[in-house]
Specification:
0% helix
């Protein structure tokens, strides 16, 4: 499975961005897709996850401003980010998990929120 993330960029605080994660290859094996982020000097953290059946999961710290959704026809998962804050500045990565326990990471897309 190959992943390509896009949609990052520079936005002012309070603004919105929508990230996309497009999967190609053996996409039928994908059971879940998740978005993670890593800010400079910090550990990578989970932002949101969605199963192939559409069930979503968010850590408590991410609830309210982030929404994950998927388009199974286009094999693309989206992350809608609203009311962005400077502390949301990070590299955002998508990851897929497959039925046989493998995980694949995308190359990441940079989000910068200015104050």
């Amino acid at each position: 499975v190959q992943l390509q993330a896009s949609g990052g960029g520079l936005v002012q605080a309070g603004g919105s961005l929508r990230l996309s994660c497009a999967a190609s290859g053996n996409t039928r094996t994908i059971t879940a897709t998740s978005w993670h982020r890593q800010a400079p000097g910090k550990q990578r953290e989970l932002v949101a996850a969605i199963s192939s059946g559409g069930n979503t999961n968010y850590p408590d710290s991410m609830k309210g401003r982030f929404t994950i959704s998927g388009d199974n026809v286009k094999n693309t998962v989206f992350l809608q980010m609203n009311s962005l804050k400077p502390e949301d500045t990070a590299a955002y990565y998508c990851k897929v998990s497959t039925w046989n326990g493998r995980e694949y990471w995308g190359p990441g897309t940079l989000v910068t929120v200015s104050s």
